Amino acid sequence: MTDPSPSYHLDHPDFFVGGAVGPPGQRVFHLQAGQDGEVVTLRCEKQHVVALAEHLDELLADLPPVAPDPGSRELREPFDDQWTVGGLGLAYEEDSDRVVLICEELIVVDTDDEEVLAEALAGAEGARARFAITRSQAAAFIATAEELVQGGRARCQICGEPMDPLGHVCPRSNGHRKH
Description:
- The chain has helices at 46-61, 114-122, 135-150, and strands spanning 8-10, 15-21, 28-35, 38-44, 83-93, 98-105, 128-133.
- With 179 residues, the protein is α/β, with parallel strands linked by helices.
- The chain has a seven-stranded mixed β-sheet.
- The longest helix is centred in the N-terminal third of the chain and has 16 residues, at 46-61.
């Protein structure tokens, strides 16, 4: 059994950002926050970044507008992931005027045996990270997420699927032409 991953609780992060490292098609996505010199970097999927940005945008639409925090735009090195995100939760705390993000660790059990899997997951509790970010940090995250999505691989004009730098075999051409 491996040691449990650490949990984090940042009530007043100095920054909160989403980012990616690597070339399009091979990027590794991260959520990162820092407070009092501590930097927490969590690995996540592109879909996590997109969904989080969409939900933050909906949440902020119901609140007074704010300018994006310029200090929450770039990932900080090192990119050492503490763990991988499996689930996200989002809430707004009116008293503190903070957006609270809860990240839950992805639990992976490597087995095909259903009994072993059920037993392992029954007692499994992954780490959690709680980030209480400002509305300005949330606005910056939304802008950064939009740039990340646009910075991905080019899309095929015929099928709309992402293309590798050398093109791809388009399913709409029945694999006869490389686009």
